[in-house]
What we know:
The complex is a heterotrimer. Chain A is an alpha/beta fold. Chain A has helices spanning 2-25, 35-46, 64-80, 92-109, 126-135, 137-140, 176-188, 205-209, 219-230, 235-269, and strands spanning 52-58, 84-89, 117-122, 167-172, 192-196, 215-218. Chain A starts with a helix and ends with a helix. In chain A, 53% of the residues are buried. Chain B has three domains: 1-37; 57-86 and 268-305, no CATH class; 90-263, Rossmann fold. By secondary structure, chain B is an alpha/beta fold. In chain B, helix 6 crosses helix 11. Residues 1-47 of chain B have low confidence and may be disordered. A six-stranded parallel beta sheet of chain B has the order 3-2-1-4-5-6, sandwiched between helices. Chain C is mainly α. Chain C is 81% helix and 0% strand. Chain C is extended, with a radius of gyration of 26 Å. The mean pLDDT of chain C is 86. The interface between B and C is large, with 94 and 69 residues.
Amino acid sequence: MMDRLKTRWIIFGGLFIVVTVSYLLRIKFESTASPEVQKSFTYLEELPEGSVIMVSFDHEASSLPEIRPLALAMLRHAFKNDLKIVGVSLFAEGTAIGYRLLTETAGESGKTYGADYVFLGFKPQQISAILGMGESIMHVFPEDYLGTPTDEIPMMRGIKNYEEIEMIVSIADGALTVHWIEYVGGQYDQPIMAALTAAMITTYDPYLASGQLYSVVGGLKGAAEYENLLGRQGGGNRGMTAQTTAHLYVITLIIIGNIMYFRARKAGRE
Amino acid sequence: MSSKLFVDSERPARLYGIMSFRQTRRLLISLLLIFSASIGHASNQEPVDTAWFDTGTLPTLILSLAAIFIVLYSIRTIKAGREFFIREIPGLKAVEEAVGRATEMGAPILYTPGWGGDIQRPTTIASMNILSTVAEKTARYDCRLIYPTHDPVIMAVAQEVVREGYASAGYPDRYRADDIFYISSSQFGYAAAVDGFISRDRPASVFLLGTFEAESLILAETANSIGAIQIAGTDSTIQLAFFIVACDYTLIGEELFAASGYLSQNNMILSSVKAQDVLKILIGLFIVIAIIWATIDPSSTWWRF
Amino acid sequence: MQQRLPVLICFVAGILMFLQYFSRHPVARTVFVSINDYWQIIFAFTLLVGVAAFGKSNLRQIGRGIDTPYRFIALSGLVIMPVLAIIGGIKIDSPFQWAFEYMLAPMQATVFSLLAFFVASASYRGFRARNLQAAVLLGAALIVLIGRVPISEMISDSFPKVTFWIQNYPSMSARRGILIGIGLGSMTTALRVILGIERTYLRGE
């Protein structure tokens, strides 16, 4: 038991050192955009000025270091192209983060709350909220995050339900985007785009291949690629060095583990 | 209305002991009238689609009805006295071992349904079925069962399931409601609390059965570090990979749903599990036909619906 | 009666939600919206149940002297955040936002970051080439690990392509097979619940 714990501490300590040193070194890795990131970027780039997109902050505070670069890159891009954004959150913790990110990026682009973007806040019971918005967004969110009646917000007057929304961007760290795909995509034919933490990307591969999910921007790598396309470096590129060295560290551990395994097996035979 | 609906509830019921046809019809008509009365204003505001059936959903309806028919038919055939075989599932077989080990060590058992599910999710219902069996065994061996959860509704249901398990085993006095408790709806608040419990109280066996997300490996690795025997199962394909690495036994996807029939040996439930196999064969056939068709005629799209 | 009424409600709600999917008629829409509204209302009340249960459980443990400091911290968090929101509002420069961004978010991220450490230890322990199948799996894992970071392009242009192929063909087909099984399992479980065959979630006969 002690040996096992000792090994664990060595592995943990090694990872801590590798990641910390990587952040201090600031080596820059060039990466070309993957087809998925390119597809997402092109879609937002080609949307006509004034089109409405819904951005749903379906994540918790825990994934903020990974989610923030992703969200900032996509929101900056949307505001740069004069798209209108309806922000919502289906996780309580995503609410304050969503409001902060929208306010921050809107401020950079000189956008006005209520005319260029709104944040409707949080609604519990995700499936119910998602399905309800297909009938009426105002019914599900009678007030915005700050307590203003939704029907008094100029931008919301022409937006009844998903029919007025070009694309739903679900920024998620879990399986919540599946609800958007299955209920909104399936029932209302609404295209869905996802910005996901790296750990969740493979969960969505089947939806992506079947066309139920339009595209995915995933993890720090996706954020870095999006930042490169946008021409503005950010947290995605900064995190790439640490991610690369952490992957190499894990590969090294796997190799060491196998060497020790084969040595033990050989010793056992002898 | 409600009194009229249930006055004759003691009559022989025809729908699996729930209600008679007349009751069902009366209930549906009543509900329809209530809802119809409240739509007047909505239909006056703008042109709406008044067709009762949305033709775009026809393929889904046909497939759904076919699937439901197969399941119901399988359940019905049970009356003809047919026997069902279900292959051995090591994870479920190990339940006895896990409870026995905890009893021998005098340590508690931890059971978590994960953070990702809510009560309407079939995975949570399937997890409750296994919890019921585990509760019966822990009651019999007088072993402490701890069930932390992230959802107050799951907490309430789990309390009832465990209480019922203890009562079925004949030891209702051993049930401790305090051991089934709500922690936090926050994913990592929940993970931190469960991790803390595992580190401090060192359970001998850990059941990770339900819907898990990123907290799966954090919980499984912590339990692994204290040497607990772990039985895991989830419907999340990505978390399955973590469980397979870190746990002793893993129920892969549908095994979790088959648990109810496997553990209870209830023929009605087993027959519905059997229906899954029939449906799987049909889906397999459809895939093979579609592949051949699409290869011969690449422009064909009938198989895409 | 203890079981009949809940099973009846479950049956009616299940059938109605199934049928409404196939109709765009205003009656179907109203049924759908009404059930959704009640769903939201019920959930709001369950949150109160959760808060009450959390408070009760922690106070009882404090009374018994079990983990007292931790339980005080948990209870103070439960009280302080709503009080901050009520007194100072929830705007960008409010104390609530400050507490959220500089206390809650870093604490949550810290627990999430444990995942990286556990992935490292699990990889070390679990990825062993014990037989041919395990060796193939190990090889695929190494390729994907390298393929998911920019360094792969420096090694070879083919790396991202091979990674893409592994993720989108062998891996996805296996996952789809599991997903189909899960989908069918979910469906039959849901049917058993709607029809009242599966009643474990209900107490008593």
